[in-house]
Amino acid sequence: MTLKLYDVAIIGYGPAGVTLANLLGQFGLSVVVLERDAEIYPLPRAIHFDGEVMRVFETAGLRGEVEAISRPGLKGMYFNNAVGETLLIRAGTAARGPHGCANNHYFHQPELETVLRSGLQRYANVHVLLNHEITSIEDGAEHATLRYKDLRSGAMHTTSARYVVGCDGARSITRKAIGTTMLDLGLHQPWLVFDVRLKKEVPTLPDHTVQHCDPERPMTYCNVTGNRRRWEIMLMPGDIPEQMVQSETLWKLVGKWVTPDQADIERAVIYTFHSVIAETWRKGRLFLAGDSAHQTPPFLGQGMCAAIRDASNLAWKLEAVLRGRAQDDLLDTYASERAPHVRAFIDLAVKLGDIIQTTDPQAARERDARFKAGQPEIFQFPTPRLGMGIWRGESAPVAQIFPQPMMANGRLLDTLLGLKFAVIGDPSVLDGVTDETRELWQAQGAVKLTFNDPEVRAWFDQHGVRAVVLRPDRYIMGLANTSYELDSISTLLPAATTLAH
Ligand SMILES: Cc1cc2nc3c(=O)[nH]c(=O)nc-3n(C[C@H](O)[C@H](O)[C@H](O)COP(=O)(O)OP(=O)(O)OC[C@H]3O[C@@H](n4cnc5c(N)ncnc54)[C@H](O)[C@@H]3O)c2cc1C
């Protein structure tokens, strides 16, 4: 019997898997998604994503749908001391920030996953198998072979794919198949996550996020969406986990803010937050993405965001290789670019965790004094550059994401680009390139745009450049001031391969 050969098999249908499937679906690749569970994981985990992630959803054609189930977070984060005095406010962001949207969005993870899954109905080329558990993965010269079990019937099946992406979460079977270990970045702290649904308006509950920097019991409060509110509560020495999730204990813990006649408990779970990153993200045809590759404590609300960035980085590279527009080694740049990038977020989350989790009264007093004096530098949202990969340039903004300005015609830039390379700049620089460069652009279907629109021009003026080459994930591949420099940067565009796929 001949096995069905997919372009890509995705293991796991959480945020990483479903986003990757949407992007690959848009490219028209044949994709199978295999998921063990019958339903979306029902308990809320992530509640925040950032502007760059909204932009990925926008590229996937789902921004409107995602906006309908999320809310922009414009009010910032307050750091309060044990007696409720505000020490520091990390300012909110504009409704239209650098990514063409707010930089913070709040949502209920099961609702977001529902929207992203619905997006796949647009693609007959994406085949989703729920209730199917991968039991083994074997890499091969031409393709990888997957064994999986239909959990309803118990029947075993086999399929194959050119590439396999393990979006299979913290206990990833793909990671075992790759045979890598996790590098421990140091933070493993149990926290109680307590979600409620308000039965009525509680005007005293803030609509911004609050870090309660109480050394006796550090806590975070969050307005999620609609009537959902969350408290994340650090476990202290002597706490008995079973008792902590009892309703009596829960109401006592949050009694200052809300009472049982005002809200219902949605759930209360103790999680141990980890900070780890896989040493190897790729072996042969197998890749890791999302929590299978890295986990971060949620102090920056970035675990899922990193998963979405993984999908965005990998999708266009898989497409270019599978369509014969790039060599297989382009796929090595996925890990080399993404690992240091996500590491910067994890390191900052660990640092932030150390500060929020301070339990020593003297250290807490010193921290509070620093906060009062206004030293917010550690709370700058990180904008790390990608690790080594398909870009060239000594310094930022190269290897950072390009902003999404509004064009003079009222459209946001990304809507003109699709999932393609783009060359944007001064017409005289763009027109002066060699025929070879033009051929390279054409081979990749690159979009060519001149920078007449004021917001776009402002970015070029600010950076003192006249042309930019963007990758399909909107990261800056290189900058140029002359046609000659643009020729040079364009040689980084993936080279076509003669290998048949
Ligand atoms: C309390 C808490 C708060 C958080 N807050 C935030 C936040 O505010 N912002 C943020 O960005 N992130 C946050 N996160 C992190 C975020 O929830 C995760 O990073 C995200 O869910 C990871 O997505 P994923 O797709 O990689 O993995 P998962 O969501 O874990 O999905 C993996 C999927 O793979 C499936 N699977 C596993 N093994 C197999 C197999 N053998 N065969 C078939 N299927 C398999 C699983 O059933 C699962 O559906 C938070 C996490 C927690 C716990």
Structure write-up:
The chain is α+β, with helices and mostly antiparallel strands. It contains 15 helices and 23 strands. The protein has helices spanning 15-27, 51-59, 63-68, 109-119, 173-178, 241-244, 247-254, 303-322, 332-356, 361-372, 414-417, 427-431, 435-443, 454-463, 483-490; strands at 5-11, 31-34, 48-50, 70-72, 77-81, 86-90, 104-107, 126-129, 132-138, 144-150, 156-166, 182-198, 209-213, 219-223, 228-234, 263-278, 282-283, 286-288, 294-295, 422-425, 447-450, 467-470, 476-480. The strands form four sheets. Strands 1, 2, 8, 9, 10, 11, 17 and 18 form an eight-stranded mixed beta sheet that branches. Strands 6-5-13-14-15-12-16-19 form an eight-stranded mixed beta sheet, sandwiched between helices. Strands 21-20-22-23 form a four-stranded mixed beta sheet. α1 (15-27) runs parallel beside α4. The longest helix is centred in the last third of the chain and has 25 residues, at 332-356. It binds flavin-adenine dinucleotide (FAD). Flavin-adenine dinucleotide (FAD) is lined by residues 11-17, 34-37, 41, 45-49, 133-134, 167-169, 173, 193, 271, 290-291, 298, 301-305, 307.
List the helices and strands and how they pair.
Blueprint: E1 5-11, H1 15-27, E2 31-34, E3 48-50, H2 51-59, H3 63-68, E4 70-72, E5 77-81, E6 86-90, E7 104-107, H4 109-119, E8 126-129, E9 132-138, E10 144-150, E11 156-166, H5 173-178, E12 182-198, E13 209-213, E14 219-223, E15 228-234, H6 241-244, H7 247-254, E16 263-278, E17 282-283, E18 286-288, E19 294-295, H8 303-322, H9 332-356, H10 361-372, H11 414-417, E20 422-425, H12 427-431, H13 435-443, E21 447-450, H14 454-463, E22 467-470, E23 476-480, H15 483-490
Parallel strand pairs: 1-2, 1-11, 2-8, 5-13, 11-18, 20-21
Antiparallel strand pairs: 3-7, 4-7, 5-6, 9-10, 10-11, 12-15, 12-16, 13-14, 14-15, 16-19, 17-18, 20-22, 22-23
The chain binds flavin-adenine dinucleotide.
